[in-house]
Amino acid sequence: MIVSAPASSANLGPGFDALAIAVDLPFRLAVAESAPDGFHSAEPTHPAAVAFRAAGGDPADALHWHSPIPPGRGLGFSGAARVAGAYLGARRSGIAHVDARERAAEIATELEGHAENAAASACGGFVVAAAGRVVRLDLPDDVQLVVWSPSATTSTDASRRSLPTRVSLDDAAFSVGRAALWVAAVAAGDLGVLRDACEDRLHQDLRLQARPDTAGVRHELLARSDVLAAWLSGSGPSVAALVPRDVASIVAAGLPGDGTVRELDVAAVGVTATDSPILD
């Protein structure tokens, strides 16, 4: 059995620790006897291995992984790894797919300390994760993500520690309204309002101040009328943009050459198991 869990882009601007989109960059995990060539050995401290044991997986099982998700770039590497590990551990313990997926989301959330990345990797699509619940919505097939990532990485823990512990009522109301607008826009299929919905005053502006290169790329993206929304992906330093599929290549080609640019689909399906993965 080879498990695959998609990457994620979290927060989407105002949805701090609550909103995320699953991204079609897979984290794949297998026990040694079923791991294809090209997989890497997972040390016991690897997030996938820790989650595997937490879900009841046999500590004696040797795990191997493969993934194109760049770690430390705000695309949910650890969340996808933990969902994959917990799901594999649950399935190896005899738990069926639906219950294993739910268990994987719970364990990954506990290990991550926040739910949105784990929810997206477990369920796919656009997710709202709050109050111990996950609501999933589909995004249209005619949109894609364009993601720009610099060579530098960001520590999520360090980035979170830099945020203020108190915010003004005006700033809180600003971000709550725009997070709600995200959800309403996706639910109603009215993506034209997302340029306003991706603004935030709780964390995004502060994090972008520390990364002027990232802030500049987001500014360039939002200067284009064909970009639906652009946000700091997770804690950064990547920027993600939602664009119509027919202009994704044009938008990607216009971004600075000092970063890695990816054109990616939204992952409509969350964590799954297969017998024959295709390596990316």
Description:
The chain is of the alpha+beta class. It folds into two domains: 2-138 and 267-274, 2-Layer Sandwich (Ribosomal Protein S5, domain 2); 143-264, Alpha-Beta Plaits (2-Layer Sandwich), CATH 3.30.70. The chain is 36% helix and 22% strand. It is built from ten helices and eleven strands. The chain has helices spanning 47-54, 77-92, 97-112, 116-123, 156-161, 169-188, 194-197, 204-209, 212-222, 248-253, and strands at 2-10, 19-31, 40-41, 63-66, 126-130, 133-137, 143-149, 229-232, 239-244, 260-264, 272-274. Strands 1, 2, 3, 4, 5, 6 and 11 form a seven-stranded antiparallel sheet that branches. Strands 8-9-7-10 form a four-stranded antiparallel sheet. A hairpin with an 8-residue loop joins β1 and β2 (19-31). The chain is globular, with a radius of gyration of 18 Å.
